[in-house]
Amino acid sequence: MPYAKDVDAIASLLKQNPTWNAIKPEHAARMRAQNKFKTGLDIAKFTAKIMREDMANYDKDTAQYTQSLGCWHGFIGQQKLLSIKKHFGTTKRRYLYLSGWMVAALRSEFGPLPDQSMHEKTAVSGLIEELYTFLRQADAWELNHLFRALEEAQNAGDNAKADELIKQIDNHETHVVPIIADIDAGFGNAEATYLLAKQMIEAGACCIQIENQVSDEKQCGHQDGKVTVPHADFLSKINAVRLAFLELGVDDGVIVARTLR
After folding, report:
1. Helices (H), the chain
2. One of 71, 206, 207, 220 is an active-site residue; which one?
3. Can 206 be counted among the known catalytic residues?
4. Which of 47-51, 136-140, 145-149, 213-217 shows the lowest mean pLDDT across its residues?
5. Which pLDDT score, from 0 to 100, does residue 181 have?
6. DSSP 3-state of 114
């Protein structure tokens, strides 16, 4: 909803509740604008649509490729997106990529581990939630500066400046971008894969990458000694991820099914 209309809607609500008269509608509308995404599922649905549109655009024109940046901490992800937006003026076609080897090496409570699915299975979903907390904070920070400038313009009676700032607020581009989350080989059977995929999606993931290795024998993709599961077993895990997406209403969710043979 445009900022001005939201201010009017909240003002109308406050009139119906006179005991709320200490609340300024402008302040409530600002807080709503700074908290566009209420849950991880809101983020997953929003970013899945972006990713599907980017995929369709790439099919039409391969020059419209995307870039996925590896990330292992919320602050790092936030600073990457702030820098990208400042330099390029947009976050379009930029994603974050949470690789299993990177999570194993940098996020496990056991310390740095090899890429063998030895890290905690919830480490990726925890990182997704952390990243989106920091990216939403970047939105709030940027919008806060616009709102403060708007208040100054209104106090100075500069209507032209105020109108321009409201336009910027209404057209603000979020720092929330798609995350490609590596679920390794699913950390177990199809049911275990479904449960973990569901947790990742609830944290905000719109895209899950899965590979066809045996979970207990997982090796880094470039190493020897990889053991793959039967084709039917891998399809069961892929379907388990799709069911998790559909159950949670993320109908556009993307699956990257990676084969090692």
Report:
1. 3-15, 25-33, 40-60, 74-88, 100-106, 123-155, 159-170, 190-203, 231-247
2. 220
3. no
4. 213-217
5. 96
6. coil
Helix axes 123-155, 190-203, angle to 10 degrees: 10
Do the bridges between strand 179-182 and strand 94-98 make them parallel or antiparallel, or are there none, so unpaired?
Answer: parallel
* Whole-angstrom distance, CA of residue 242 vs CA of residue 253: 8
Q: Note the pLDDT tens digit of each residue in 34-91.
A: 999 999 999 999 999 999 999 999 999 999 999 999 998 999 999 999 999 999 999 9
CA dihedral 137, 141, 144, 145 (to 10 degrees): -170
**256 DSSP 8-state letter:** E
pTM of the model: 0.91
Whose CA is closest to 146, among 171, 129, 128, 126? 171
Element (H, E) at 257: strand 254-258
Q: How many other CB atoms are found less than 10 A from the CB of residue 173?
A: 12
